[in-house]
Amino acid sequence: MTKGADLVTLARLHGALDSVVELEQTIAAIKQSSASPRSVQHVADLLGQARELLRYMLTPVGSPGTRVA
Predict the structure, then answer these.
(1) Do residues 37 and 20 lie in contact, with contact meaning Cβ atoms separated by under 8 Å?
(2) Domain extents for the chain?
(3) What gap in Å lies between CA 29 and CA 44, rounded to an integer?
(4) Please, are residues 57 and 13 in contact by the beta-carbon 8 Å criterion?
(5) pLDDT tens digit string along 23-63?
(6) What are all long-range contacts of 46-52, with beta carbons under 8 Å and residues at least 24 apart?
């Protein structure tokens, strides 16, 4: 992969993380007024997992908090 492609991928990952965080905030507002908060909570949990995965993918290799397989 070229450096330019790496930067594009990095930008897309950051964009995806921003979108997930924004969606989490929307889901939290929906949960407060929902008649079915358990199903909304399930969506919130999945978004939390997506956020953590994206943050992990954006953590530089060798940084504290990254694991080596």
Answers:
(1) no
(2) 3-57
(3) 11
(4) yes
(5) 999 999 999 898 888 889 999 999 999 999 999 999 988 77
(6) 47/20, 47/23, 48/24, 50/20, 51/17, 51/20, 51/21, 51/24
